[in-house]
Design a protein that fits this description.
This protein is an alpha/beta fold. The protein has nine helices and seven strands. Strand 6, helix 9 and strand 7 form a beta-alpha-beta unit. The mean pLDDT is about 95.
Amino acid sequence: MGTQKRRLIVVGNADLPRDFSEEIDSADYVLRFNRPRLLDGWSGTKTSCLMMCNSGKPMQRKLEDHSFLEYKFFKQAEFITLVYHPYILKAYFALPRLSSRLLKHRRRDWTDKAIRVFGGANKDVVIKSAQFYLEACAEIGIEGNKLKEWFPSTGYLGIWDCLKQFDLAEWEIYICGFTWQGWKHHAWSTEEKWVRERIDEGTCHFLQ
């Protein structure tokens, strides 16, 4: 008799078709992103890892918002993962305009401050390697000069990472809360096609 697999759920920040809270909160591992949405409780509360982009205005807003550290998902997270290695930010991400840096304190790289702030809130902080990012990009055809034009979404990077890091003989991976729409520099259609190919081959599943 085979051993029942453990369940991992990757929860995106899009609307959900129904209340998934029971399935999510009973999972063995739950991955969420950036500033997760409550969705009237439909997405549950369990958070094993909170994966965040450590560049640009979204991270700046989190680090300047002291209430973020009291946010339910942040407090429950066992650890914080930052998806961009400083080398990647320096090599491929544009600097904010000088006026924005001087007047609005914009930064390309918030890694150091994120470590100070989140570490100060007693969270372990993991920084993904440069190789992780480059391999994930290559998987969906982002290579060479495209690395300065197209940037994979945090959601894609999280799904890709789970499929690489977790033994699929022991884990069943489910995803929900993804619509593949948003920032114009994410390759949404390519990311969606890649995910659906993983669904078709049975390496992950939609939570329905």
